[in-house]
Design goal:
Number of strands: 2
Structural class: mainly beta
Strand order of the largest sheet: 1-2
Order of helices and strands: HEE
Strand content: 15-25%
Largest sheet: 2 strands, antiparallel
Mean pLDDT: 60
Oligomer: single chain
Low-confidence stretches: none
Number of helices: 1
Helix content: under 10%
Distance between the termini: 11 Å
Radius of gyration: 14 Å
Length: 63
């Protein structure tokens, strides 16, 4: 899979990720994988970020 930044031109990636200057993003490895079970196949025609909470952690998925 190509890096998300390759699909976004110019500084749009930075604007997308840095909506609030007080917000920072932290990456860490999980002890156990989180399995996402989708009910059906979907076609996504745009780039978005979905936030959800799992095991008391906030997780962002870029798609």
């Amino acid at each position: 899979m190509k890096d998300l930044r390759e699909y976004i031109k110019g500084s749009q990636y930075e604007k997308l990720m840095d909506r609030n200057n007080d917000t920072y993003y932290e990456m860490e490895f999980l002890e156990e994988p989180i399995i996402l079970d989708f009910k059906e196949n979907v076609t996504i025609g745009y780039i978005g970020i979905h936030w959800f909470e799992e095991r008391s952690k906030f997780i962002a998925i870029e798609y």
